[in-house]
Amino acid sequence: MSARVVYTDLDGTMVGPRGSFWHTATRGLTTDPATALADLHRAGVALVLVSGRTFEQVVEAARIFAADGAIAELGSVVSWDGGRGVHRLRGALPGEFGDRTPMEVMTGLGVVEGLLATHRGRLEWHAPWHATHVTDALLRGRVDPLAVDAELAERGAGWLTLKDNGAIPATSRMTLLPEALPPRVYHLMPRGISKGAAIAWDLERRGLTPADAVAIGDSVSDLEMAPAVDRLWITANGAGVDGMADLLVAVPNVTVTDAPMGEGWAQAVRASL
Fold first, then answer.
1. In whole angstroms, what is the distance from residue 187 CA to residue 190 CA?
2. What is the count of structural domains for the chain?
3. Is 200 left (phi over 0), alpha (psi -120 to 50) or beta?
4. At 150, phi and psi to the nearest 5?
């Protein structure tokens, strides 16, 4: 297909190990993603970064990759015009909390502290990157998101949900128990906010439809982009994660790339031009 806009996840998708645009999954050097990016720009196709990173981080990355827009904190913030245009999604955040951010509300209610106490050793802050998030609580570890959602509902916080944003390498800074390894990144955030919802809003802003768009990702949270676009690509590294194969069966417009990370991303970009 010929897309007019490509929405792409960053970590584990467009960029490889340690966020490098120049390394393969096995840490070999490659120029393939850079060449595909140049082809994308030459074709006049808009590129929008869609990430769990903060607004400031994604907007800066958008400048580096000459992206036309950026969606941050797993769909919480849509931005364009170099970050000057901004729209924030509230999702199911109760109206009684007014203009307070989800993190302000969660802090006031003690929600995160309660989860960390219940799942001690299996869940912790994704430090130091969690510190600047305002819409979601950024955590890491290994838990059952559905079970955590049930706990939240029992505590009267059913408007929140825990989203899996993929695997990360274990490091010495982590204090997780062995059974929580290898760890995954989680975003605790209001229901109704997703990468797909943010893409749908952005497409409407652009006067486009899902038929004009393609998305590329690698994690469970990226599957939520599928209903908002014509074709969703999942890189091989994401498709190989435990349990992902069963989830992919339920997504009719998904295609798995042949290669992982940046090399797979390049394949998806070229197929969309």
1. 10
2. 2
3. alpha
4. -65, -40
pLDDT tens for the chain, residues 1 to 273: 689 999 999 999 999 998 999 999 999 999 999 999 999 999 999 999 999 999 999 999 999 999 999 999 999 999 999 999 999 999 999 999 999 999 999 999 999 999 999 999 999 999 999 999 999 999 999 999 999 999 999 999 999 999 998 888 899 999 999 999 999 999 999 999 999 999 999 999 999 999 999 999 999 999 999 999 999 999 999 999 888 999 999 999 999 999 999 999 999 999 999
Last residue of a domain, one of 145, 166, 190: 190
Percent helix / strand / coil, the chain, rounded to 5: 40, 20, 35
Do residues 236 and 26 touch, judged by C-beta distance below 8 A? no
155 in the same domain as 102: yes
From CA 83, how far away is CA 77, in angstroms rounded? Answer: 10
What is the C-alpha separation between 223 and 260, in angstroms, rounded?
17
pTM (predicted TM-score): 0.88
Tell me: do 64 and 18 sit in the same domain: yes
Work out whether strand 254-256 and strand 213-217 pair parallel, antiparallel, or are unpaired: unpaired
- 3-class SS of residue 154: helix
Range of the domain at 216: 5-89+193-271
Q: Are 31 and 266 in contact (CB under 8 A)?
A: no
Based on the fold, state whether residues 30 and 10 are members of the same structural domain: yes
Identify whether residues 164 and 215 lie together within a single domain. no
Question: Does 84 lie in the same domain as 149?
Answer: no
Distance CA 9, CA 18 (A): 15
Last residue of some domain: 160, 190, 220?
190
